[in-house]
Automatic annotation (TrEMBL):
It comes from Cirrhinus mrigala. Keywords: Coiled coil, Nucleotide-binding. Belongs to the TRAFAC class TrmE-Era-EngA-EngB-Septin-like GTPase superfamily. AIG1/Toc34/Toc159-like paraseptin GTPase family. IAN subfamily. CDD domains: Ras_like_GTPase (cd00882). PANTHER family: G DOMAIN-CONTAINING PROTEIN, IMMUNE-ASSOCIATED NUCLEOTIDE-BINDING PROTEIN 10-LIKE. This is AIG1-type G domain-containing protein.
């Protein structure tokens, strides 16, 4: 799960787990594994979190990787940690070694992706390699029954890689996140309709997932290693360029000093000069 802070990613995960565990409307309960806060300026998820759900009587389990929301008040440095943590998760012997879906969470009202969000999203998606594109899906929250045109156009404009329909449209699933609100008996019919809609949407989502190919993360690990080597190479080149610029400055200072000395020597027999000598800290 990847998404900007405030998109309702935490609420969506709670709803998904309730669906998997078979919670029904008549049970009159709502399970939460991830706490939802009213503060929308900070991500509710402060670290990469892995949830494993084992429904009783079902032959499968559900593993959800929840990433911190991008773009909160804690800054870009916090966002940059996410790809590094995912790298450790994919490489660990007890970590995640295959994946069915990468879910990008957007609000139906999102008209554009901010530059910071695009940067971090690109960082995360680049971990998986190009063959993961057909496994990237758009999950749209706070959605009504109509087509979320703003959010879909946002995806097209930003050229986000994702699974496409035969018509070339992004594959998306809608959720309204109404379940996270405090229940009020006066709005019973509204909540019931929302609940039924959520069940239908999750049925469509998991039905679609059953027909796609699970991707191994072995290639992803190779991408991560290559990326780390590339980052180290770029960092080394930056150091070399900086050192070359300092040496150029040193030569210019020496040239000027020699010219000054030449002029000075015409009047004096003894002279000295100073230049800045660059060095690299070990």
């Amino acid at each position: 799960m990847v998404g900007e802070t405030g998109t309702g990613k935490t609420c969506l995960i709670n709803a998904m787990i309730n669906y998997i565990l078979g919670v029904r409307w008549e049970h009159k309960i709502w399970l939460e594994v991830a706490e939802v806060s009213e503060n929308q300026t900070e991500s509710q998820t402060t670290a990469v979190t892995v949830y494993e759900v084992f429904p009783k009587g079902n032959p499968f389990s559900l593993t959800i990787i929840d990433t911190p929301g991008q773009g909160d008040t804690r800054g870009l440095d916090k966002d940059k940690l996410v790809p590094e943590i995912l790298q450790l998760l994919f490489r660990s012997e007890d970590g995640i070694h295959e994946i069915d879906a990468v879910c990008l969470v957007l609000k139906a009202t999102d008209a554009r992706l901010h530059e910071r969000q695009l940067y971090i999203l690109d960082e995360v998606l680049s971990l998986f390699g190009k063959d993961i594109e057909k496994n990237i899906f758009i999950l749209i929250t706070n959605a009504e029954k109509t087509v979320p045109k703003k959010a879909l156009n946002c995806i097209k404009v930003a050229k986000i890689p994702c699974a496409k329909t035969e018509n070339g449209q992004p594959v998306y699933f809608k959720f309204n996140n109404c379940q996270s609100e405090s229940y009020d008996e006066e709005d019973r019919e509204v909540y019931k309709d929302s609940w039924d809609s959520g069940i239908e949407n999750f049925q469509q989502f998991f039905s679609y997932l059953s027909g796609i190919t699970t991707k191994s993360l072995n290639m992803t690990e190779g991408v991560l290693r290559a990326r780390k080597q590339l980052d180290a190479t770029v960092s080394n080149l930056k150091d070399r360029i900086k050192l070359a610029e300092l040496r150029k400055q040193e030569l210019e200072q020496t040239k000027k000093a020699l010219q000054d000395c030449k002029n000075y020597k015409e009047k004096h027999n003894n002279f000295e000069y100073e230049v800045d000598e660059p060095y690299k800290e070990l």
